[in-house]
Every structure is written in structure tokens, then in C-alpha cells.
């Protein structure tokens, strides 16, 4: 059977049809012309695609080709992405001097011909639709055949010919260029740097490609889900200006979410989009760089569009809606007594500043709306386009907790008046649009931030001058039921994760967010960030985030005695440049003493305990690291020398009985002397202070190592040997014993197990993991 399988796969290669130049393809099969490939989901070829082809593409291909950071922009997570094909232009480019043209599926082109005009090239055959041409002219098919003709070497660690860096050079070969690629890089077959797919999987793809690559969308949502979507669209699209402003605010905060309805058993996901057409008509997407850019239509309608693409963990932001949520929005934005006389302008300097656009709305309503789904809002700047890349994320520490100021105390009319008076000082870098000059912009925004901080401190000093000082009563307690009140953020070098609860050991720092700070983080890193922007836009976004991080830390420090505030901050910013240290100190305007009566000399530890006690009713136990059983529990206390050898994210599967698995995540926290340096992260690393946290379940979406422990003996041996590591050779030896390397012959079988277990743990939060960061060690 294997010989037959290889023979059928290699016929095209041996016939000379797989590696021909574009001119020869034209001679043999005619010129390229886009094809109509979409069929109904309940047709014969549609059912074939959904039942036999799509599962292979998802489990073997989408795990590397799913989003903005997919190699060659090849998104295999939807029929539109498959048909669009490849691009040689990078989305993530931290050096471009001018903003590039966006290339978002469904938005920036409406059909495959338009993508061809934007220099995307096909991976499916677009010449004569014969069986021979459909195989010979398909980049996808030739990539699979190339892997079989040049399988992975037997070495556990692949050689230098394999480049797994995220910024590696990419060939993105057209079918006419494929012969040159195959000759110069025979190891570049797909899946890249992983074992080939099985013969059964290959046969499914071969049959599909041979028959013309027909594709179908998943079946439509249930009637119950569509009825709920219509109800929400009715609410969001009323003519009253109060409703229109509410819909604009909701959209600008929820547009990344995967919305589903609690009453829908099938859990269809929807995206909230702007359309030029009202409910009841087909959606006509409004295409702008940012969610608040000028729509250039007389009336914007907010619609719920069925999301038919594969769900990826790295972009999945589930949001549950029901009747209670609808009533909550009404009570927050429609019931309060305020008036909207006209809709705000879409001019960039206005639209990018939420304090101007939504000034008519009560501050408390806006803040409570964000708090209700705080994890989702913060997840936006982690799972949105900004999430990829060191420059975007080296502005935060590797592990910190987040709490929020109580709306009753921090969203008062006095606070609202102060924000109105200083709305210009709260302007964000997105006002410069997608081309910015970073240095001059930094100076301008630094002055504005200082102006705002002084006004904020003046108001705070006046509020707490009569003996009423800050205590943990300042913190929002989630109304005693909402577990969004306590969050933990993990940075994994060039990706990040946010989860509910105060997870892990006590962190180096903590943030306390108030409304203005929370809103600015969202409009800086989500609504206002353009992944296609120039280097200046990306740098000023990162530099401005310094201001916001410092402000969140300062809110936390205000709960400590005044001497400890300065001492702790100095420790957080060891070795920081004097110029930045001076700027950091300029924000220390709050002069009131803490209202907490500390009992020990370790005030930070004591404060963490007080905050945890205050929020105890709503602390999520899901990732409680103290619940990890021995012997894995002891790994939380590993020595730094062993921790230094670990990747950022390691998944551990422990086989428990015949078929059950227990899952754990081991997170490596990189310690820094400070995180104020933009381009010298390595110089700021404090390796001796690195820590690790092991938690039950899955944290993170980009596994770098998969450990598989088959029995109690392996578990005990792994837990004993891991802390003893001293050098790279020790780590590699342990991987040979206990890990599923990317070169493991049964890698895909273990990948399937991993995803099956993840689905059990994550439920509605489940999505495919991304394998672009799997290490080669």
C-alpha cells in the first residue's frame, strides 16, 4: 500500500509536470483564470469538502497557516483564504517607512480576482480544469509531494537548513517558481519542518484537488441563533441618536469578539461589523483601517455576521450574549438621563479620542460596560493584531496582576468633569493615523501625559485630604459575582495571555486600572493600532504604552506607604536611562498617605494578601497553581539555572488511565532589571531572577514544547530531573526521553490528542493551537 501511495504521489514529479516554468504551464494548460469553487454545504462536493478535506486542512495546515502571521499570508482557515492564496509581502514589518495597504480577508477585496490585482498568487490550479492540470498546477499539491519526496531526516534536531524564526525569509513561490524552490530547498515541503501527512489524509486532499478544489462554508446558524442576532441588530440600529451613539461605542469595543448566544446549543459565532445596509438586507461590509475611521456612508448599520472560518486559539475572543446582557446595555446607555444632539465627527483627531467622541455618555456607564467584560477587552490587545512581535509586547512584564478601581469611587461626576477639561491631553497616537514620526511624537505625548497626570493627582489629593485615605476599598469587587474583577497577564516574549484570577506566585508588579487608563489602553493597542502602519506608528504606540503601564503601576503603588512607593519603583526600574527615570518620577504627584495600617515590613506581600482577601468572592480558581499535584507541584520552585533553559510555554500531558489525560502548562517568566528599553531587551535581562509557574489546564496558544508523560514512573522521573538541568545538553536529553519533538514520527497523532484534551478543558474557548513557535531543540 505504501508503494502504491508513493507512486501515485510521484507520478506528477516524474512526468515533469510538477516543476515547469510559468510559460510551459501556459502552453500546456492555458492562461490562469480565477475559478468559481464555492458550492452549497449540502451538495455532494460540499459535503466531501466539509467531512474529509477541511478536517485535514485544519488539523495539519491551519495550525501554521491561520492568521496575520501565517507564512506568506496563506490563510487556510476559510475557503476565501484558500482561494486567495499567497503574498510575498509581510504583514508584520517593523522597518517599513510608509504604511502598507491592508490585506484583510472579506474587507480589502470581495473576490479572488481582486486579490490577484493585489499580487496574491494561487495555491490551487487556475488553468484548464483537468485532473492532470489540477494536480500539476497546484502549489498546495506540489508542496505536499515535495515533503514526501524529501521527508524529514531521522535526526531529532533539524539542521540549519530549516529556519523556524518568525522573521525568516519566505519564498512564497508561485507555481512557475516552484521548480527553483524545490531544487534549492528540497526540505521546504509542507507541513514545513514537521512530519508529512498520512497517506489517508493525502488521498483526501489529492482527490479534492484533482476534482477542482470545490469548497463549501459550514452550515448556517440555527434559527434560534438567527432570531437572537436579529433581536440584537434591532437594538443596535434604532434611529434615535442615543441608540446610534451606543451602538458606535459597543462596536468599537466588541468588534474583535466571537459573539455567540447562550440559548444556541450549536454555538455559532458571529462578528459585529459595520455595514452600509440595514438589518434584513445582505451585509455590505464597510472597509476602513480602524473601527472608528470615516465609513463614508450616510448611515452606519451594525450587523452580526456569521463567522464561518476555523476558530484559532490565538484570535478567539468568545463573548456570550443573552437577554440579560441586552437589558444591561439598556440600563447602562439608554436609561440614564443624557442627550445626544448630533453624532460625533469621524475626523481622525476626533474619532481616535474616545473622550471626545463619547463625551455625552456618563463615565460610570462606559466604565462599567468595560468592566463587565474586562478580560475580553484586555484580551483584545493580546489576541488582536498587536499581539505578534517583541516590539509590541516588551512594554509589559512577564507576569503581573490587574485589578480595577471601583466605579462608585473612580467614575464620579468630578472625574468626568476632569476628563472633559483635559480631553486634548488624553489624545492618542492614532490621531497621527498610520504614518508617524516617533521621536517628535513621543515628546508631544509625554508633555500631554504629564499634564493629565498632574490634573488627576490634583483631583485625587483633594478627594483624600480630609483623613479619608486609599485602602483596598478603592477596588472594584465585581459586584460580588463578576470574576472579571481580578486578572493575570502573562507575557511569553512575543505573545501574551490574559486569564481570570490572580494566578501564580506573587508577581513583581501589579496594575490598578481606572476608566481613563482602561479606555486609553484599548484605543492605543486595539481600536487605534494598525498592524499595517509604518515603523513610526508602531514605535510611538509602544512608547506611549510606557506611559500607561507606569500609570497603572502608580495606582497600585498609591496603596503603599510613601517611602515604599519610591523604593519599590526604583527596584522595578533598575538600570533605566536617566532621561526616562526623570520622566517616570515626574508622574509622582499623588502625595496622600495610604489608609492601610500595615503590620509587617514586607508591605508589598502584605498588600497582595489584602487585595486577594478583598476580591476573594470573585477570584477564579480555574488556574490555581496550588492545585497542581505532586510531584509536578515542586516545579514551581525550580532553580533559576534550570528555568533559564525552558521555553516560554510548555504543555504537559499526563496520561491518567487507559484514555484520560491531565493537562498542565509550565510558564517561564523572563525577569528584567527594567522594561523601559525599546531595543535592548537582552541587556536588561536579570536571568538569576527568572521564575516558573505550573498551572492546571492550558494557558497560552503557542506551545513551544509538548511533554507527554505516559505513566506515574515517567511523571516522577520528569519532575525529578527537570530542576537538575544545568546546560543545553541536559534539556535536550530530557526532551529525548519525555517530549514530543516536531520531528517525532507520530507527531500528528500526539497533536490530535493535545487538541482533543484542550477541547475538553477549554469548552467554548477552544481553538486550534498555533505551531509556528514549536522549538527545534
From TrEMBL:
Keywords of this entry: Isomerase, Signal
Cleavable signal peptide: 1-22
Top-level taxon: Bacteria
Key word Signal present: yes
Membrane spanning stretches: none
InterPro entries, per the entry: Fatty_acid_cis-trans_isomerase (IPR010706)
Presence of the UniProt keyword Isomerase in the record: yes
Any GO MF annotation of the entry: isomerase activity
Name of the molecule in the record: Fatty acid cis/trans isomerase
